[in-house]
Backbone:
């Protein structure tokens, strides 16, 4: 319970966000929209870490540091993924996952 | 309803509605904008939990950096104005069933589990000095090693992104 807001509410918000991200990951075909779904998934995990930290262990900071490191990894991942996507677009003039069946010609 | 509950309800509604719109919108630039709303609402949730430093990181790095990067790559790779083709029903139904099942299972587990109720004295440990000391400390609860590793990861990602996106000479 954090000043009237129970822990479960945060966890349920994070869960819904996570599974919406997974739905997008399964359904979408454009590479950039798949990348956006990945960002949703990473963000929902951050909400869980932070809520657990604040509500169950308010004297520690582990959850916050995990969230900081996840954000850093997400930034690195997004930059490399976008470089790859632009490279693919330059070769195939298309970023549809179903039309990409070879990695190097 | 206390002000905290009201703010939580607003942020939570924004997160859920706009994350669903992010994965269903057929215009890709709009999807990126909806993603920006989701990330800003997540930052608001960190403010609600009094993690001011983390909320600032979220706003500058996620909402300011990653979304701008995504919008740049959208502008480079797709034509604004054309819609994405709608996914087939054969794809939507299994994906929706699987994710709905997973979400219901997880939420049921969360609601059943008895989390410890006692609240420890609400000490404000999110002072910036505490965070800075923990990040460079090598003792227990210190994060000097992950901090260095993540800096090497960022450097490697930067070099890798430049080499990947560089124009080939052939």
Residues:
């Amino acid at each position: 319970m954090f000043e009237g807001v129970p822990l479960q509410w945060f966890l349920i918000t994070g869960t819904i966000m996570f599974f919406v991200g997974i739905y997008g990951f399964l359904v979408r075909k454009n590479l950039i929209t798949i990348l956006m779904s990945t960002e949703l998934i990473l963000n929902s995990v951050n909400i869980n870490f932070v809520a657990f930290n604040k509500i169950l262990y308010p004297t520690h900071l582990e959850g916050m540091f995990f969230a900081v490191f996840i954000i850093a990894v997400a930034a690195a991942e997004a930059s490399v993924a976008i470089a790859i996507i632009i490279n693919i677009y330059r070769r195939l003039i298309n970023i549809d996952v179903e039309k990409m069946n070879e990695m190097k010609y | 309803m206390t002000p905290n509950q009201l703010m939580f309800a607003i942020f939570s509604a924004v997160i859920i509605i706009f994350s669903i719109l992010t994965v269903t919108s057929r215009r890709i630039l709009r999807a990126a904008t909806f993603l920006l709303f989701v990330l800003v609402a997540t930052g608001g949730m960190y403010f609600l939990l009094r993690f001011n430093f983390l909320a600032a990181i979220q706003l500058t790095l996620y909402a300011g950096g990653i979304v701008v990067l995504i919008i740049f790559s959208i502008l480079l790779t797709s034509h604004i104005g054309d819609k994405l083709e709608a996914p087939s029903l054969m794809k939507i139904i299994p994906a929706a069933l699987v994710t709905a099942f997973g979400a219901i299972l997880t939420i049921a587990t969360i609601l059943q589990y008895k989390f410890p109720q006692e609240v420890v004295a609400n000490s404000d440990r999110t002072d910036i000095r505490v965070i800075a000391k923990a990040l460079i400390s090598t003792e227990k609860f210190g994060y000097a090693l992950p901090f260095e590793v993540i800096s090497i990861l960022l450097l490697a990602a930067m070099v890798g992104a430049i080499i990947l996106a560089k124009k080939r000479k052939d």
User: Anything to note?
Assistant: Chain B has two domains: 1-101, 125-170. The first helix of chain B runs from residue 3 to 24. The two ends of chain B are 65 Å apart (CA to CA).
